[in-house]
Amino acid sequence: MPNYNLRLLAATGCLLGSAAAMAGSINQADATRFLEQAAWGSDSASLQNCEKLSSISQCLAKQFNYSPSLYPVTAAFPANSSVGCPAGSAKTCFRDNYTQYQNQVEFFNHALTGQDQLRQRVAFALHQILVVSGVKISQPSYFAPYLNVLQENAFGNFRQLLEDITLNPAMGHYLDMVNNNKPSANGKLSSNENYAREVLQLFTIGLYWLNADGSQMLDSQKLPIPTYSQDTIENFALVFTGWTYADPGSASAGKFPNAVNYADPMVLYRNKNGLDQNHDKSAKILLSLSPNGHPVNLPANQDGKTDLKEALDNIFNHPNVGPFIGKQLIQHLVTSNPSSAYVKRVTEAFNSGSSHGFGSGKRGDLQAVIAAILLDQEARGATPAGPEFGRLREPVQLVVNVLKALNAESDGILNEETLPMGQNLFNSPTVFNYYPHEYTVPGLILQGPEFGIASSSQLLTRENFVNTVLFGKIQPDSTSSGTTVDFSQYTNLANTPDVLVNQLNQDFLHGGMPQLMQTQLLAAIESVPANDPKLRAQTALYLVLASGQYQVQR
Amino acid sequence: MNQSRRKFLKATGGCLTAGMLLNSFKTWGASSALSSQGSGQYQALVCIFLYGGNDGNNMIIPYDAYADYNAVRNTTAQLNIPKSDLLQIKAASQGNQMFGLHPDMPELQSIYQSGNLAVLCNVGTLVQPVTRSQYLAGGVVPDQLFSHADQQNQWQTGTTDSYDTLALTGWGGRTADALTAAAKSGQLPMVITFAGNTPFTLGVQTQPFEPGQKLSGFPSQPANSPRYQALQAILTETDTAALVNAANRDVTSAIANSDFYNTALNPAPVINTVFPGNSLGSQLLDVAKTIAARKPLGAQQQIFFVSLGGFDTHTSQLATQGGPVRNTNSLLSQVSQAMSAFYEATNELGVANLVTTFTMSEFARTLQPNTGGGTDHAWGNHHFILGGAVKGGDFYGKFPKLALAGPDDATAEGRWIPTTSVDQYAATLTTWFGLNSAELQANFPSLKNFSSQNLGFLG
User: Fold this and answer.
1) Contact between B15 and A521 using a beta-carbon 8 Å cutoff
2) Is B9–A445 a contact, with Cβ atoms under 8 angstroms apart?
3) Would the pLDDT of B304 be above 70?
4) A312 in the same domain as A200
5) Is A387 in CB contact (< 8 Å) with chain B?
6) Once rounded to an integer, what is the mean pLDDT over residues B325-336?
7) Chain A environment of B164 (Cβ under 8 Å)
8) Are A271 and A205 found together in one domain?
9) 3-state SS of chain B?
10) For A347, which of A30, A278, B116, B331 is 20 to 30 Å away at the CA?
11) Do A325 and A312 reside in the same domain of the chain?
């Protein structure tokens, strides 16, 4: 019998030597857990890529070296879909060119077969923090460059990521920095506040001053301390003025506002005399870098590029960025309720730019942050760190995890599965993501962001997905090949129910299946005649995958 | 910096940490409800949440005082709706002045004129009454004005204090908690959502039910299936992991509630009223079908939650929310058509006097346009209350003076300081629904700071 855990590790290029270890010997349950946190799961077809590595740390190094799976940037279509897909066009014209369909298929194919598993996990987490949504940016060719910014910067520096995202035209249109003009001379029109507000509230520092451990700083009256005011927003709105779409393939723009171009970063418009005439030239008051400190000021009459650089530096150097971003990345990869000490260790990695031998030593190094998250004592170990450890698998992750574990062959048309679970991929309802990043699980004082999309209807959709995968076939339409799975490795164990249960326990629950659940599973398997081993395997797999014990990544 | 009132769960900063149970795990819904045969008077509240911050300034426009509006909105951005396009309505409470509904809302104009639609003016989140001078002097105001997430939560939870335990639940859910003791919702939770488990829908005991799915893969009588038996056993075992227990608890309720709901709605109730084919229309059609099935559901009282997004119109507002040229796909058209169809359906079902529908949205938008043909986040807003029990055809509250940096502006861009609080709005609705005075005070801790606790728009 093949060792399934070793196959899991092999899939990400991380076959762990049994004797060598990061700190002591590597436990198989820990290794499997690592792959759920750092990858999308596994498939046995990747077995031939096995490499002998001696530690999780080496596995991480390997993952940091994989180049990104990129999204193809196809030609843009006319803005008006009735022009791009006139009457008589192929039935799929609108779907393929005016919705996120192509990017969704690409995403699922990357997740199911790409080598850069950790990069994809991190990029997907970043997508859910630095949100652009296809609800507004409908064309796939408009959206793909944004996804590529995330893929390319996932292992880079947060400062560069912030700049590339700020100047990405999809973000520019989504949050209205593109073509944001300085206030009108008569004072009747203000500058657009949208990007100014969300870049601070959601992408970098959040609403209140944080300690390094992620808790809120309190003032002398034990009240939290806001990081900015409405005045700050209005000042940042002025910073983000004067930028427009680039001329195609160029670093300049012929006019303001310029014709749409989503392939190249936005540029500061300059008139014939080189003046950035749509950029506001007043002095600007930015963030304070300590709770009682003086705000950083931008002098009047600066060039728009200088204003932008200094404003992004101001945001990036705010002490909140480490805990604000670090804690959310922990929640997306490892656990919804990290201890304050865990958050603090990740903040220190963000601030110092190094951790566990990874990172450049520069503030904001994301390899250091990721290493700190994944190699932390709270993430690692033979057993989960405590009763509150874990996170509800979000729909996209649930679907990919199940399919990879069952050796799926898929055409990547899987958004129809995740949409009714509350995650319409790349079509987040708002800039506040598919689910709130702070969501208290009803009845508990525990955070569980993914429980924000766990209504009764959404939960039953998850259960029914498991049923369809095991007992049916995912077949979105008659022209597609759909998704099929191969769980014969479990069918082959069906004659020995206790062995089957044990293997499922190892592969899906890291050996943590409660005794009562094992008993229930055995009884259900044995209720199926031994001459129907496939039904035995289906029965057992259904009960494991439909259980909260699996639905929560622990 | 304005102050706000807060209490803390913990002196350490109120962070929500591990393992603290508010109440023991229990299965909400079918297995725990007391029986009820649905006798007595049925009642429903229907909340329509307009996500993104609806621009009330272009929805309810002064007609007689049009010049105030026009002076700010009729700029190079051309964000004004021409006076001649307004759908005129009279507001006796505002000195008999004429106002105009947005031209995309003729259906609601008609219902207003028939007396079953009211407008509540300049309502928003407040801790206590506050004037412009008090605001500018740092007076007590809610946390994080102008932030989407915070203002959505405050509208939905009934507290402006993010660190009060009340912020963990919503006023819909808590109203259900208070009234479910009287077993008025039958076997289902009193709160039924068609737009997810939002804060409004959550109580301390009440978990909302969202219809739409049923467990597949089992025979119609699954109790004899060993796999079904094992599933139920696994879902109801206590695990050492808190989130595992929560997931299993919620799946257990979902199975029981959906079985019950789908049985009660089979065959599906027939609603002859034609609903618009948009998202809000289909959600409200589902509400109508659920109300039609109130007897098989055994429900005497129900609280519904539906929503429509897309109102965050920082740019291209006229094309999205609605412009001078009638656009039957605009957001305001969708609202008008869907609310009108729903009201007609309640007439068809003979429950128009028993169902009260109301709108909420996290904030209004600046009267002053920005350079992108849009508007930015503001504060006090105008809302609709619809139903046979509504004393409609008039405005409630006080329409603001549309003047930048005027007496009602918190800033210089036209962000109206509310003159009516969300608490007063919600208290009026839930008083009609049956909450007593003590329950109102518990549900809305700031309500005591306002002189009037009933705005009078419900009979």
Assistant:
1) no
2) yes
3) yes
4) yes
5) yes
6) 96
7) none
8) yes
9) CCCCCCCCCCCCCCCCCCCEECCCCCCCCCCCCCCCCCCCCCEEEEEEEECCCCCHHHCEEECCCHHHHHHHHCCCCCCCCCHHHCEEEEEHHHCCEEEEECCCCHHHHHHHHCCCEEEEEEEECCCCCCCHHHHHCCCCCCCCCCCHHHHHHHHHHCCCCCCCHHHHCCHHHHHHHHHHCCCCCCCCCCEEECCCCCHHHCCCCCCCECCCCCCCCCCCCHHHCHHHHHHHHHHHCCCCCHHHHHHHHHHHHHHHHHHHHHHHCCCCCCCCCCCCCCHHHHHHHHHHHHHHCHHHHCCCEEEEEEEECCCCCCCCHHHHCCCCCCCCCCHHHHHHHHHHHHHHHHHHCCCHHHEEEEEECCCCECCCCECCCCCCECCCEEEEEECCCECCCCEECCCCCCCCCCCCECCCCCCECCCEEHHHHHHHHHHHHCCCHHHHHHHCCCHHHCCCCCCCCEC
10) A30
11) no
In-domain check, residue A41? no
Residues of B in contact with A542 (CB under 8 A): 217, 227, 231
Distance between A66 CA and the closest CA of chain B, angstroms: 34
B247: nearest CB among A241, A384, A551? A551
CATH class of residue range B43-213+273-449: alpha beta
Give the residue numbers spanning the domain of A549.
488-553
B210: contact with A, CB 8 A cutoff: yes
pLDDT at res. B459: 78
Last residue of a domain, one of A316, A333, A364: A316
Residue ending a domain, choose from A269, A293, A316: A316
- ipTM attached to this prediction: 0.94
pLDDT of residue B41: 87
Contacts of A516 in chain B (CB under 8 A): 233, 237
Are A349 and A235 within one domain?
no
- Is residue A275 a part of any domain in this protein? yes
Please state whether the predicted TM-score (pTM) of the whole model is above 0.90.
yes
Residues A269 and A327 in one domain: no
Same domain, A199 and A312: yes
- Write down the pLDDT at residue A33: 87
CA distance A336 to chain B (A): 9
Regions of chain A where pLDDT drops below 50: 1-11, 13, 15-24, 44-52
Is residue A312 located within the same domain as residue A339? Answer: no
| Residue B423 forms contact with A (CB below 8 Å) | no
Task: Please count the structural domains in chain A.
Answer: 3
In the prediction, which pLDDT does A48 show? 30
Same domain, A198 and A311: yes
Residues of chain B with C-beta less than 8 angstroms from the C-beta of A551: 244, 247
Q: Which residues in A lie closer than 8 A to residue B239 (C-beta atoms)?
A: 514, 548-549
